[in-house]
Amino acid sequence: MLTISSTPIQPDVLRRRLFDPAAGGFCAFEGWVRNENEGHTVLRLEYEAYEPLAVSEADKIFAEAMDRFPYLQALCVHRIGLLEIGDCAVWVGVSSPHRDAAFRACRYIIDEVKVRLPIWKKEHYVDGNSGWVNCERCARAS
Amino acid sequence: MLTISSTPIQPDVLRRRLFDPAAGGFCAFEGWVRNENEGHTVLRLEYEAYEPLAVSEADKIFAEAMDRFPYLQALCVHRIGLLEIGDCAVWVGVSSPHRDAAFRACRYIIDEVKVRLPIWKKEHYVDGNSGWVNCERCARAS
Amino acid sequence: MKTITVRYFAMFREHAGLSTETLSLAAETAADVFAATRERHGSTEPRGHCKVAINDVMVSWDSKVEDGDTVLLFPPVAGG
Amino acid sequence: MKTITVRYFAMFREHAGLSTETLSLAAETAADVFAATRERHGSTEPRGHCKVAINDVMVSWDSKVEDGDTVLLFPPVAGG
What we know:
The complex is a heterotetramer, with two copies of chain A and two copies of chain C. By secondary structure, chain A is an alpha+beta fold. Chain A has a single domain, classed as Molybdopterin biosynthesis MoaE subunit (Aldehyde Oxidoreductase, domain 3, Alpha-Beta Complex). In chain A, 35% of the residues lie in helices and 39% in strands. In chain A, a hairpin with a 2-residue loop joins strand 3 (36-37) and strand 4. In chain A, helix 2 (51-68) packs antiparallel against helix 3. Chain C has a single domain (2-74), classed as Ubiquitin-like (UB roll). In chain C, strands 2-1-5-3-4 form a five-stranded mixed sheet. Chain C starts with a strand and ends in a 6-residue tail after the last strand. The chains are: A alpha+beta, C alpha+beta. The interface between A and B is medium-sized, with 30 and 30 residues.
């Protein structure tokens, strides 16, 4: 399940929600705002999402991950609004009986979230400029 | 760096220690005690480690991961003593500029930790029996 | 002519200077709506990695638009 | 004869009923020490996935042991 949040992500609260007595492995990924992108010094980021379609597209991604790498529980939370360096922009967590499925499902979900969800990222640079960012795969393809 | 701990692992404290302004991705893996192994219902687990060699072997593993998937920061904590279902037995976290290296380094570290460190696991079953567990790769090979 | 409500997101919204407008268009497909708004707002963003939804359902560019539809125009995304 | 201190871990310790003992052995290598302790404690664990250290350094089974060495015998491991 995907949640869009305008308040800080709390990884420790989220991981507890994935506890399952049959789970032997738990994998989490966090996207953090870093101070640099393609040679620009980044001051802060701004995220915008269109929640209704972000949620329904995420439902499809979670179902695809389950088909490929059966897991027990999975969650994703994506921040919107203004974020500073070091802030957590996205959190994905997956619990599974074994670690291989936990790693692979987590990787699948974050990879697809980054390219398929209607979420946009605007970088504010130290030089006063700002710019909307394309997803990595799109940038490579174009 | 590896730490052996006889008290509960605190993932939220550990992840904060991996913050780095250049980090765009953070991947964590946790091994949880689950209620079943190879058809046996597990009540609890007991871990034992030989700390001096666990630490020095882990140093090698971290250096190998750095060579293969350059990351910024990495930590591993392994519990010893008696653990109950749902307890976190091992935590690995890696921060990196990009998510691919974070995922791969985290996976490399946990895979190697499981087979190379002088750490032993004894399962206590619901039927009153108990048994020392071989690493997965060893069990397959033998 | 059809009455179509268009919603703009992210760079499209900034470029158009508004987030929603209702237009009278001779559009047959979602692609026609995209082309009409490009011309209207002098946008140069290629359609390549953009996406479109009609009434909150993701659709392909050749999907038909009906009178009264709401068309959502999504510039290239970058989650995470 | 050499004076060798042997440390047992996990199932080896349980099987021997002690964690450390100092033995007088005609051993040349780590493998000889393993064989002698197997016989002494009637253990049947094959050497296959076991590991050995001499004075806190992981070594191969054909490493030489010296008088006064401490040999650590590690049964198959299973971290995580």
